[in-house]
Design goal:
It contains 12 helices and 8 strands. The radius of gyration is 17 Å and the shape is globular.
Length: about 260
């Protein structure tokens, strides 16, 4: 079994499949929608309408780049407030038209820059979580790579929360944890082992619902296999969740996350 630090390195690989890779492989007819109708369009978050074997769905994902130029354009997958507000706009639209929502989480964290703070980064994250908690449609949140801090939680309030085998989900990066707790960021490997950030750890703790297996060496070695496993799971869970009323969905989601406090 791989160590937590080995999984951190796999989760951060540049060649690892990103949100749009999964969206284009799993869904049909994807139409990307842009802008938060308040400030601008944040390319660190992508989202829009697609179909899943004929069923309309809304898909939202945090998008990193695979090369330096794309990473700069995507702000290394670190959303700003307008990204979360775009996501909320799409979520509310999905609720209005009764479309299930699927989110793909892959971020080192929300962007901590001055401009983002001035435009209400914390408020945008909190409001996104509040919005998701109140939606009357099925929500499936999938951690596909690195999921860190409020940047991940903002689109992670799902009826089902799943992780790829080599993904990580944490309150902050191991480097950040080590610098705070040990006063030495070089102890990140030790921190990763103690933080309980792997899919196996989090399933054991009851925080995630399922682990999706990856091929040897990581999802980049067989995107089709991982995407088809995700597609099968998404279809099964949407079918089950659609049996619930809006009130039952909201209550079950509340109880799911309430137990962590």
């Amino acid at each position: 079994m791989k160590s937590a630090w080995e999984k951190v390195k796999l989760a951060r690989l540049l060649e690892r499949p990103k949100a749009l890779d999964y969206i284009h492989t799993i869904f049909d007819d994807f139409i990307e929608l842009h802008g938060d109708r308040e400030f601008g369009d944040d390319k660190a978050i992508v989202g829009g309408i697609a179909t899943l074997e004929g069923m309309p769905v809304t898909v939202i994902g945090e998008q990193k780049g695979k090369k330096a130029k794309e990473n700069i354009e995507r702000n290394f997958g670190m959303p700003e407030p307008e990204g979360y507000r775009k996501a909320m706009r799409l979520m509310k639209q999905a609720d209005k038209f009764h479309r299930p929502i699927i989110t793909f989480i892959d971020t080192p964290g929300a962007y901590p820059g001055l401009g983002a703070e001035q435009r209400g980064q914390g408020e945008a994250i909190a409001r996104s979580m509040l919005t998701m908690s109140q939606l009357g449609v099925p929500i499936i949140a999938i951690v596909i790579g690195e999921a860190s801090s409020g940047g991940a939680l903002a689109i992670g309030v799902g009826d089902r929360v799943v992780m790829l085998e080599n993904a990580i989900y944490c309150i902050l990066s191991p480097e950040g944890f080590a610098s705070i707790l040990y006063k030495d960021s070089s102890k990140a490997e030790e921190a990763a082992e103690n933080m309980k950030i792997t899919a196996n750890d989090l399933q054991e703790l009851g925080i995630i619902d399922k682990i999706i297996e990856e091929p040897e060496g990581g999802a980049q070695n067989n995107l089709e296999m991982v995407a088809m496993s995700l597609k099968k799971y998404i279809k099964q869970q949407i079918k089950e969740l659609q049996k619930l009323t809006k009130e039952e969905l909201v209550e079950a989601r509340y109880q799911k996350f309430r137990k962590f406090y």
